[in-house]
Amino acid sequence: MSFDDILLNIISRLDGERYKHAAFHLMKGKRSGQTLQDTEYYGLHPFFGMLPSLHAMDFDRAYRSLLDSGFIEEKEDRSVFLTPSGRGRASELSPVRLNGWAYRGMEKVFFARLALTVQTVSHLSAGDKTFMPVSADPAVQRDVRRLFSSVLKGIKPKDIAFEIRSSLETTGMEEARLARLVARLTGKGMSGMTWRQLSEVTGMTEMDLKVECVESLHIWLDTIFAHPSPLLSELAKGVRTSSPLTGSAEKTAELYRAGMTMPEIATRRNLRMSTIEDHFVEIAINDSDFPLHHFAADEEVKAVRQEADRLSTRKLSVLKKAFPELSYFQLRLILARLGKEGNESERDDSARPDRPAQTGNRI
Amino acid sequence: MNEMIQQDLTALLKRVTGFDAFREGQEEVVRSVINGHDTIAVLPTGAGKSLCYQLPVHAMGGTVLIVSPLLSLMEDQVAQLKMNGEKRVAALNSFLAPKERSAVLANLGKYRYLFTSPEMLVQPHISDRIKQLELAYIVADEAHCISQWGFDFRPDYLRMREWLGSLGERPPVLALTATASEKAIQDIADYLLMKQQKLFIHPPDRPNIAMELVRQESREEKTKWILNALTGWKGPGIIYVQSRKRAEELAELLRLRNIRVAAFHAGMEGEDRILVQQQFLTGELEWICATNAFGMGINKPDIRWIIHDQLPPSAAQYIQEIGRAGRDGGQSLATLLYTETDADKAAFIALDDLPEPETVRFIGKCISEGMELKEAGDRAGLSDTALRVVSYWLGRLGTDKAAIQMEELAAGKRKEIFSMVRFAEGGGCIRSRILALFGYAPATRPVHCCSDCGFVADQFLSARTTVDNASGLLGWKERIDGLLGVGE
């Protein structure tokens, strides 16, 4: 799928509710409350953090091209929506196979380890012990060095080739796509191609090639986790996010579990209250045990949900107008839990021993 | 220590490296270090500088501390030593994971060669450990980086002075560099607190590199000249250009003429930069169109031709860049393309990164008002390098003197550019005139000396007779098997 199509796909999910920046932050994997909420509300997990080093210029070029082709338009308030022809185009797109939420740019580490391993085996099997490593990253060099004294010990190049080939076959990706993926690998006397060179040979743009490569790696990694094999599983170690929370939000969560109030946490951590609020929204999105009732009365939660459904919107500004007595923070928390608790909202809310009792969190 | 007689050194060389004889200039330096003298050695690129610091320790025992301002270079040298079978070598730098750093620190005394960066050296816990070592001698590699007059001044390198000053009795210091003006040599001796230092200077002359000067009216003419030259003759070679845009533009024009070429500049992804270097080393690429980001640590012996599309801002930089040709000793060519407007461009680039005196005052004021250095730099729009330079001088001299210092630096750079302009516009033997900028004269006149004395390119460049056709993508299975050396 081309970069333009990916962007169209994202906008089709945000249809009319967000500005263009939402899509940009999403692809870069910004860890702000807003982006994390958007990801959750609109089911954008495949795209989250798919291009951590995306340039605003590349993004703008794609956005403009969608505007120019008449697939998208902006409303007066600058939020972006799909035109009928854009809708038509979006419905024809093949399903996305990105898995940004799980890998968040770490697929690059997997590929760097793979590339250095292949290069090392290639040189060693040619009796050549001196070469310039394709990865300058010391962590990657360390990881690969370790492999040569463990899983790769005594293994023949033939077996490695077989393992890689079998795994790639299992992914079901088409031949031409796989050729583009492995064209970036380097061996003795066979250097990998730069994006520019790959673009010259294939006629695809560099941007489309990079996006395709990310998706190919996500597909491959999903396959490796589903069908482990000795070397590839080792190369893929640690590239999948284990905790859905960011490090900072995790710390806030710990302090909250230990019984501190939000203002206390802000003081202790020397962070602004708005940051702590972002953390709480992130926690609410990810923690099925989040005690929403500590932050808003059940009737309020219910009313907001009904209104959101009625208007079929998740726009904060719209909901704030309907519930001026609720804070933005409360609305964000309610939205964060939307669709997660379903009918359970009436469940028993007896205080849990590991949670603080009602604290002065209504801001 | 007694003066060592020649046989001993040659025997040592043979035992350690397997070589029968020293290359020119090496032996005196090695002897001077063994005899405990502070030593400055200026040896041209490709003359075998590393041997000068690698050999003496085998006669002296203990540990050599090598301080290097460039991380990439440090990594290269460590790799090189390891490749030659040396196990007692380690690098203490910011690349190390905390765990590895502790491992190195725990074993410091076991290493024969210990590489480190100036930043590491002044960290108290590391400095204390190093001071306890039995150091045979201390090496300042790429020592010209210590001079603020040089084209790649690294302020961090000046920290070495503080560290040396904190040592009571210290072992000899060896400063190594490929190019250094008289002024830079003085700086090196001062900043490294040298006493009665021995100086070994070998003119930066490379007799196997013919020098050509071509004057053009415009950039378009330069382009035409390059396209014409490269469709007639083969590389491998490097075209040094001044901007990323120019690198891309030339590479594209050459590629359309079926020349295997790629651009190289700091705007490219790190992986792609490595791939381009790799392709150039293996010969998959014949030419590189590069900004001066290319070349440090590149060791390709058979580069035949260096073309400068723009006047370099200093003689030292020019010599350094053309010195990448002909390391295998083979006859090579260096071409400088010059137009009158080059001087302005060179000045613009060279001075662009240097902060104005007003900027220095502004930063000084911000800091005195309690602003973070980083923020002050952002407000003034300074690059990281420039900010490092400013902060160093602010800390040392205070605001007013630091501002004056900036003016002096700018004046120094302008002077260097001006002498390059005179070089490019002047007449007479090109080799003699560039060497004169360093205060030397060529020892002999090579057969292929320069475009003024005359040289015959077709006696050493190969004519381009065949045309390379771009190949398509290999099938993925074939490529994996090919990479891993698995034949079907």
Describe this protein's structure.
The complex is a heterodimer of chains A (363) and B (488). Chain A has helices spanning 3-14, 20-28, 33-41, 56-68, 84-92, 100-103, 107-125, 138-148, 157-171, 175-182, 195-202, 206-226, 230-235, 247-257, 262-269, 273-286, 298-310, 316-322, 328-337; strands at 72-74, 80-82. Chain A has 363 residues and is mostly helical. Chain B has 488 residues and is α/β, with parallel strands linked by helices. Chain B folds into two domains: 6-201, P-loop containing nucleotide triphosphate hydrolases (Rossmann fold, 3-Layer(aba) Sandwich); 204-467, 3-Layer(aba) Sandwich (Rossmann fold), CATH 3.40.50.300. In chain B, helix 6 (98-106) links the parallel strand 3 (89-92) and strand 4 (113-116). The A-B interface holds A 112, 118-119, 121-122, 125-126, 129-130, 132-136, 138-139, 142, 157-158, 160-161, 164-165, 168, 175-176, 178-197, 200-202 and B 72, 83, 95-97, 100, 255, 262-263, 268-272, 274-279, 281-282, 284, 470, 472-477, 479-486.
